[in-house]
Amino acid sequence: MRPRVFHGIAAVVALFATACGSDGGGSGAGGSGDGAGPAATAGAYPVKVADCAGKETGITTAPRKIVTSNAAGLEMLLQLGAGERVIGTGFPPGKGSLPAAVADQGAKVPVLGQMGIAKEKLLGSGADLYVDAFGAMTMGGAGDAPSEQEFTAAGIKHVFLLSTACAGTPKAGKGPRTDLAEVEEDIRRLGSVTGTTAKAAELVAGMEKQIGEVRTATAAVPADQRPGYLFFDYDAGTKQPIAVCGRQVANAVITLAGARNVFADCDADFKPVSWEDVVAKNPDWIQLGVRNRGSEEENRKAFEEAENFLRGFPATQGLKAVKDGHFLRIGSEVTTIAGVRNADTVRQIAATIHPTLVKNAQ
User: Fold this and answer.
1) Which residue has the higher pLDDT, 44 or 68?
2) Distance in angstroms (rounded) separating the CA atoms of residues 150 and 124
3) Domains of the chain listed by start with CATH number
4) Are 227 and 116 spatial neighbours (Cβ–Cβ below 8 Å)?
5) Contact, 93 vs 106, CB < 8 A?
6) Residue 126 near residue 103, CB atoms below 8 Å
7) What is the chain's mean pLDDT, rounded?
């Protein structure tokens, strides 16, 4: 399922490649499609938001017609209550992968590209805001990204999800990501841009509460005693494993849960590694990272396939996690795609690997 190109955005792109809608234009969920769109929420304007290089974009009024580059921005907007203003998305969420509370609304958002959105379609979408998770990185086969001059000429304000757009760039912070501060800031930024600051504050407070509880519960576990943890991206294929590296949001999720990402030292978001590398790391726990198949039964089958592969593959049969049966069945989306549910995943992982310290809120 994953394109075998892993530099820059191509590694991120595959996480959104399981689509839930057909390619096409039209109005957004709850929108009329004739230009006006639903009434925008009042907010404190103007606001300014910066890109990965610090260049600011000014937003003077609440956007009425929004296009998102992928499922990360779409899910955040839906949870902020701005979903009725979304008129299109690229890299749509996989079937069943959105939270139940917003799944129906998310399914109505037109898909402008199963991968990246073609330049002409994006500029001609009628949007007044584009929420971009990719930045200057290649847009997964959709052709060249529009220039800032072209966005301006089309009347589209261009803002970024810094937690993902900056992850694989030289502008990103050095060293592994160990917290969800950038994800939380993206939620606040989108709240200010869309006039939903109160909801953004509520969402971030909920994340911080969960994470704080886990941090407190695991604080006494020494760093050198935290279990080694491998995110096994089964959908990337089994010929060559793809490591979740230090710059990926999953590294923060794993770290906050009281574990050690065994590939935290690779300075990237994703990176192809060898099975010999995996064996050398010998993780204590393995997360079976599969993307949502749309039903509990199909998800169960996918998790079983991933586990059976590791149990049957000669290179991995002897891994400590495999011999001990230390597998976590947690989907890829809530781990590797920046969003509110990253905090839920922190607790879920922590409750599994530190069961005497952390209880799962579920």
Assistant:
1) 68
2) 11
3) 9-205 (3.40.50.1980), 222-353 (3.40.50.1980)
4) no
5) yes
6) no
7) 86
Mean pLDDT within 95-107 = 92
When mean pLDDT is compared across 136-140, 335-339, 346-350, the lowest value belongs to 136-140
> Measured at the alpha carbon of residue 232, what is the angle toward residues 243 and 177, in degrees to the nearest 5?
50
Confidence band (pLDDT; 50, 70, 90) for 281?
very high
Q: Are 347 and 360 in contact (CB under 8 A)?
A: yes
Question: At 28, which amino acid appears?
Answer: G
Tokens of 16: 């959104």
CA distance 280 to 61: 54
Partners of 230 in the β-ladder: 286
First to last CA, the chain: 31
Q: Report the phi/psi class of residue 86: left, alpha or beta, with left for phi > 0 and alpha for psi in -120 to 50.
A: beta
Q: Which tokens go with 244? A: 């979740």
Distance CA 24, CA 47 (A): 32
* Dihedral sign of CA atoms 11, 167, 224, 327 in order: negative
Cα(111)–Cα(25) distance, integer angstroms: 7
Give the Cα separation of 271 and 252 in Å (integer): 16
- Give 163's contacts (C-beta < 8 A, 6+ positions apart): 182, 183, 185, 186, 249, 338
Question: Measured between alpha carbons, how far is 100 from 22 in angstroms, rounded to an integer?
Answer: 21
List the one residue out of 103, 61, 97 whose CA is nearest residue 78. 103
Prediction pTM value? 0.84
Place of tokens 């997964």: 140
Q: What is the pLDDT of residue 21?
A: 35
